[in-house]
Amino acid sequence: MATGITPTDYFHMNDDDQQLKISCLIWLDANENVTDIRNTEQKLRSIINRFMKFKDVRQCQKYIEEQLQQDRLVIIASGRLGREIVPSIHRLQQVLSIYVYCMDKKSNEKWAAAYSSKVKGVFVELNELIFRIKADHRIQRMVREPLSINLFTPSAGAGKSTTDVNDMKEFMEFCKQKFEGDDEELRNLREFEEDYSPNKALWWYSRESFFYKTLNAALRTQEIHLMFLFRAFISDICRQLESHQTQQPIRTYRGQMLPSDELKTLRECCNQFISVNSFFSTSTDDQRALSFINSYGITAGLERVMFAIDADPKMISTKPFADISSYSKFKEEAEVLFMLGSIFRLNSVNRSSDGQFWIIQMTLWSDSEHDLKQVFVDMREKLGSGETSLQTLGKVLWEMGKPDLAEKYFIRFSKQLKPDDPLLVDLYIKLGKLASQNGHYEKSIKWHKKVIALKKQIQSTVASNTNVPNSSI
Fold this sequence. Notes:
- By secondary structure, this protein is of the alpha/beta class.
- It has 4 domains: about 5-145, Response regulator (Rossmann fold, 3-Layer(aba) Sandwich); about 170-240, no CATH class; about 245-370, Alpha-Beta Complex (Toxin ADP-ribosyltransferase, Chain A, domain 1); about 390-465, Tetratricopeptide repeat domain (Serine Threonine Protein Phosphatase 5, Tetratricopeptide repeat), CATH 1.25.40.
- The protein has helices at about 35-45, 55-65, 80-90, 105-110, 125-145, 170-180, 185-195, 200-205, 210-220, 225-230, 230-245, 260-265, 285-295, 370-385, 390-400, 405-415, 425-435, 440-465, and strands at about 5, 25-30, 50-55, 70-80, 95-100, 120-125, 150, 250-260, 275, 280-285, 300-310, 320-325, 335-340, 345-350, 360-365.
- It has a 7-stranded mixed beta sheet.
């Protein structure tokens, strides 16, 4: 089987609602009369949708300490409460950055200097604070985005397929529910609903909005239902990358903060293959990629890493990659985006000459290379035609302990079949078992009756076909 290094190995959520709650902005301030708090909260939620406010240091610290190490917490604290809480939380891995918002900048800068690896600044102007958080979060999002990968050996198995149709209405309802109360994102959703077309997929992906946040959450966590809702959009991005495919061999770079245990696994897996389960954003500018990780403070359990990737578009059967800087608001970053599912050979993992970070050398690899052929044969055998059907998704969701979603996909699949399709018998049996497991016995009986009626209908059809007079043949 494939050896997976994915966020889902250490990060489990009970429902879709949790997928967007990895990042959280926490405001600690005892003052009830923060000027225009509603407007301020809206601006902050446009950066990080999940917003928490505390007045008590102990409650705030308890909440922070209870979060997973893989969470990303951005803290705003008043000068007095910041002085009290920062010494206790600044070493926690889940604390991404701390901002002090106060009236007396000079005195608070003195104590904050001792915690400069996490305290990003002391601010007296609210707009300046918001601007800095937004700029920092964009960089932090890139370097701290959990890297979702599979490692393949010649005997490896495979991950999940992500190609199918998408129901726009269901997608919009899902996003509106998740971003309820966030006026800016709701405006973005309305714009998306009115204006989206396949040739704008990359533009929406490179824009700081719900689309990027939600898609990355789906791919990062490998949450099947979220991935299903994004399938058509993923296909649109793929087609745009193909149409803008880079024509010459290039070297690209990516700055990343990796958990120490993941780096250790990568060091032990040189000359093996990596499948990246998300879109892989890189830059042709090594200094810019390096500046991202240099701007990030040293944190226990995390390592600074620079990926150096060689990619040749002439290699047959690779996933597409393209320079998408023309779609980006930040053209100077010279961004090259690799399609999700791209395969790389892991060549080496070494310390940089100054010992400040690790360099991971990789080469974009062809899916059809000899030593990967068996891997993809296994994938096709496991997934049938290579596509995950709605029935397969239903089975997986059932096994994952998500019976409501499993039922949803079984019913969705049943609507695609003809009324007398024999596959419906198996679907109705599964739906009956699901209903029974959930204690919905009347519903279970209803599905059982459907099974009996359909079997009789199929038997009657078969019998009539076998009794056709010879004269009609």
